[in-house]
UniProtKB/TrEMBL annotation:
<dbReference type="Pfam" id="PF00440">
    <property type="entry name" value="TetR_N"/>
</dbReference>
<feature type="DNA-binding region" description="H-T-H motif">
    <location>
        <begin position="30"/>
        <end position="49"/>
    </location>
</feature>
<keyword id="KW-0238">DNA-binding</keyword>
<dbReference type="InterPro" id="IPR039536">
    <property type="entry name" value="TetR_C_Proteobacteria"/>
</dbReference>
<dbReference type="Pfam" id="PF14246">
    <property type="entry name" value="TetR_C_7"/>
</dbReference>
<dbReference type="InterPro" id="IPR001647">
    <property type="entry name" value="HTH_TetR"/>
</dbReference>
<protein>
    <recommendedName>
        <fullName>HTH tetR-type domain-containing protein</fullName>
    </recommendedName>
</protein>
<dbReference type="InterPro" id="IPR009057">
    <property type="entry name" value="Homeodomain-like_sf"/>
</dbReference>
<feature type="domain" description="HTH tetR-type">
    <location>
        <begin position="7"/>
        <end position="67"/>
    </location>
</feature>
<dbReference type="InterPro" id="IPR050109">
    <property type="entry name" value="HTH-type_TetR-like_transc_reg"/>
</dbReference>
<keyword id="KW-0805">Transcription regulation</keyword>
<keyword id="KW-0804">Transcription</keyword>
Length: 199
């Protein structure tokens, strides 16, 4: 199968997975149900994703891929850390408060096995947090920020940025923010972060 054809089929399968997830929850989202929704063979899903956990891990990873690639690109280009954070903050908010992340988080909350939550942790936060940490460490080396624990600094950055917005989205209290809302929240969070970790 050609790469572009496979990429399109994967996109269709992953859209079908979100639809089945919304309709049936994680427990009811069988590979067979997703295959039927996508009009694909069950064998194709197992061959490409391994199992249901592999498929949903792929959804999480794809949702975070653009943000991850952006940070990696800027770290490689030796972009100033503060500039990376200025670009990262609204992009990360867009991902975390977007419909796909909210669908995955709602399903994870209802999944008593904890399997989906673990997939979100490993393919989402654990893939991006080290890159945020590397950015913050560069800012510290440049004398822009001051902190002892990188892990705590990353948590502070994410807490100031996201706050309770993701859970409020997940339980239906607020709608997805506009681009202007996201950019404003990111700007305020970053300003507070820099004040709190000022050298």
């Amino acid at each position: 199968m050609k790469d572009d054809t496979r990429a399109e089929r994967q996109r269709q399968i992953e859209l079908a997975a979100y639809q089945v997830l919304e309709d049936k929850g994680f427990a009811g989202a069988s590979m067979l149900a997703i295959a039927r929704q996508a009009k694909a063979s069950n064998e194709t899903l197992y061959r490409w994703y391994g199992d249901k956990t592999g498929l949903f891990s792929a959804l999480v990873a794809r949702n975070a891929a653009d943000v991850k690639a952006m940070i990696e690109r800027h770290l490689c280009a030796k972009t100033k850390p503060v500039e990376i954070l200025e670009r990262l903050a609204p992009a990360l908010l867009d991902v975390l408060l977007g419909d796909k992340a909210i669908a995955l988080n709602r399903a994870a909350a209802a999944d008593s096995s904890g399997v989906l939550g673990q997939a979100i942790l490993q393919s989402g936060r654990e893939s991006i947090a080290p890159l945020i940490g590397a950015t913050l460490e560069r800012a510290r080396a440049d004398g822009v920020l001051s902190f002892d624990s990188t892990e705590e600094a990353v948590s502070l950055f994410v807490d100031l940025l996201v706050g309770d917005m993701q859970i409020r989205r997940a339980i239906g209290l607020v709608k997805a923010p506009s681009t202007a809302d996201t950019e404003n929240r990111a700007k305020v969070a970053l300003a507070r972060f820099q004040v709190l970790l000022a050298p």
